[in-house]
Specification:
- This protein is 73% helix and 4% strand.
- It contains 12 helices and 5 strands.
- α4 (93-126) packs antiparallel against α6, α4 runs parallel beside α8 and α8 (192-225) packs antiparallel against α9.
């Protein structure tokens, strides 16, 4: 090894190296997005918790998704904020590994939760008379447990294999967090085999939930078209439009990032798409699920219009 390329114990992130003058502005913007995301998801969880009429399978899934989004954005944005304030933007290899573990597990788990929410809407619209039987509390817990178990088992195995590789070189990553592919590029051995395995895993465990999403929604679309009154069709579609929008944002960016060939990866494009599904999508979810959900808006109005002094009297 040469003097400039040696085994290292830290990674240096270079995503904002060309934007040094804008770092204070970026810090304020990202801090605002982070606080908005955390506050919005906390409001959704609190509203569902205190509103008995929202204690249904659909809103159980929404609580699970909101909690996951809070963990998801927290796994990356606080470190990003620190790097915007300091000159040396480094993290230890162990800390980077922990971040990738959490980020990857939560990402795959979200794929499963979104598929479970699609199944919930499928049963509610296509089999409304059997909804309480097919989507009972036990079924909801099993779907959530399956999503988390798949995420933990699959991604723990994949990331452990990744960090079993030897790393050497400059240790510089052209990204704002430790994503999988930028770290793979730092390995000092032939990574074609592990890249093929990772691509296959991504294709299997991202595309499978995606297909599980598409099949119910195709059936839902057919069912909605057959509903005679136009008002009933709009009502049926409105119950799943929010979920379709969230799925489109999340899967659009994820599929573009992880299912494109290695030769198609460009640092600037990867950073932009990663920013979309790691920061923008979690921030938009509270807006989508409150502004486009009549029941959540009504629950929010009831809670905010309560008079604590009158209740005490």
């Amino acid at each position: 090894m040469s003097g400039s390329q040696s085994v290292y114990t830290t990674f240096t992130f270079l995503a904002f190296s060309s934007l040094a003058e804008l770092e204070p502005v970026l810090f304020v913007v990202f801090l605002g997005i982070y606080l908005f995301t955390m506050g919005g998801n906390l409001i959704i969880i609190s509203l569902i918790w205190v509103t008995p009429s929202l204690h249904t399978p659909m809103y159980f899934s929404l609580v699970s998704l909101s909690f996951l989004e809070m963990c998801y954005i927290t796994s990356m944005v606080p470190q990003m904020l620190v790097h915007l304030l300091v000159e040396t933007k480094t993290v230890s290899v162990g800390r980077c590994a922990a971040q990738i573990y959490i980020f990857a597990i939560l990402g795959l788990t979200e794929c499963g939760l979104l598929a479970a929410m699609a199944y919930d809407r499928f049963v509610a619209i296509c089999y409304p008379l059997h909804y309480t039987l097919l989507m009972g509390p036990c079924v909801c817990l099993k779907l959530a447990a399956a999503s988390w178990t798949t995420g933990v088992v699959v991604e723990s195995t994949q990331i452990t294999c990744l960090f079993s590789l030897p790393f050497w070189g400059t240790g510089k990553i052209h990204h704002f967090f430790g994503d999988i592919m930028p770290v793979v590029k730092l390995a000092c051995v032939d990574t074609s085999h592990i890249e093929t395995v990772m691509f296959a895993i991504s294709e299997l465990f991202i595309m499978t939930p995606c297909l599980l999403l598409l099949c119910p929604y195709l059936r839902i679309l057919v069912t909605i078209v057959r509903i005679p009154p136009a008002t009933d069709r709009r009502k049926a579609f409105s119950t799943c439009s929010s979920h379709i929008l969230v799925v489109s944002l999340f899967y659009g960016a994820a599929l573009f990032t992880y299912l494109q060939p290695k030769t198609a990866h460009a640092p600037e494009t990867d950073k932009a798409t990663a920013f979309m599904y790691t920061v923008v999508t979690p921030a938009l979810n509270p807006i989508i699920y409150t502004l486009r959900n009549k029941e959540v808006k009504e629950a929010f109005q009831r809670v905010t219009q309560r008079n604590p002094l009158r209740q005490m009297a």
